[in-house]
Amino acid sequence: MTTDDLRRLADELGLDVVGAAPAAPYTETERHIGERRARGLFGTMRFTMAQPEVSCHPETLLDGARTVVSAALCYYVGSPEPAAGEGRLPRYAWSDHYADLRERLDALGRRLGGSYRVLVDANQHVDRAGAERSGVGFIGKNTMLITRTHGSWVVLGALVTDVELDSTPPLDAGCGSCTLCIDACPTGALDEPGVLDATRCLSYWTQTAGEMPEDVMDALEDRVYGCDICQEVCPWNRGVEKRRGGDPLPEGSQPVVSLVDWLEREGDDLVAELERLYVPRNAPRWLRRNALVAIGNVGGEGEAEVAARYVDDPEPAVRAAARRALAPVADRSRLEGGRG
Ligand code: B12
Ligand code: SF4
Ligand code: SF4
Q1: 127 with 155, same domain?
Q2: What's the confidence (pLDDT) of residue 150?
């Protein structure tokens, strides 16, 4: 199959960008993982970094693996801003785009024939490494895989197959002298260009158990999960934002959540509704902690009343976030009262 055939097929299946490369080790990435792990830049994360001998070796993922097809699916649509009492979700999590991409890659695998394995956001494969190698995009200083046509507003996945396909070349593009994402990151997580210090990253902390550092809680503002700042400022994203900014929100999308609901809802129910998000041990207390942090930043009297129920929570991180939530809410109400 030629590159043109592959692109046509991908187009038919609704994949936005596609590329192919030999199923061979990601040697550089494996080295980066070793170095970053030794420097403690992954914090407590396990994911791909727990087993680089697998995640950087696509040739081991399938008997007779010949090719890795990497694909990107764009998720950008225009956004409503959170109202009072609401928390913000990151764009990739407004609905389950990973499931959508998995289905499309599975359909591609069936059309290609042979044996194949689909991996999307799986611990066994570093998705950005495959996508970079096959020219789906380049890696920016914010560590995002950036496509020429859809910027970084894409989720990535891979299809490892025993079918031999023509390779597509790496993308000849880059950041140039731009440093907007480095300057915009509120906690300095990108100070070393192209190398994320997860222990400084807001997105990391919303997905990690335990108590958050004070400056991280402040910088989260109304975010209850993830962070899009280093993509929002990226010039490579302007084109797709213009093209798709007016598109309606697909049915079932959830760009914002009720902060009170996250505190009041029955735990299992809350985690089940947000199954598409990674939550440590699927424990609702980490979602509640995030909501309490957001209430501390942007909540009003109504949210504070509910937050107060958590000041003696058995989990120290939840307790701390609840106590922090109450003081600034009181301050803000006084200020607003003064202005009125
Ligand atoms: C662990 C993880 C995280 C961690 C750590 C991210 C990280 N940068 O390592 C946390 C929780 C912080 C996170 C956050 C986010 N993530 Co995440 N995450 C992953 C996961 C599961 C593994 C990533 C990984 O292997 N990291 C280890 C190292 C090797 O990877 P890397 O930093 O991506 O490294 C690349 C470059 O930085 C470069 N590199 C590495 N070291 C060095 C050193 C030097 C000197 C240089 C120049 C380059 C360089 O090479 C690598 C590629 O070969 C992948 C899914 C998967 N299975 O791959 C999703 C994934 C990377 N995440 C994704 C998304 C969408 C996000 C968020 C945008 C979500 C959000 N809105 O909050 C943020 C973005 C934060 C950021 N700027 O990276 C997408 C990225 C899509 C894209 N266009 O790039 C992925 C691919 C999921 C998917 N299947 O779509 N994520
Ligand atoms: S996701 Fe947010 S906190 Fe993390 S590197 Fe990007 S801007 Fe910084
Ligand atoms: S904001 Fe600038 S430096 Fe950062 S990834 Fe985009 S182009 Fe590169």
Answers
A1: yes
A2: 98
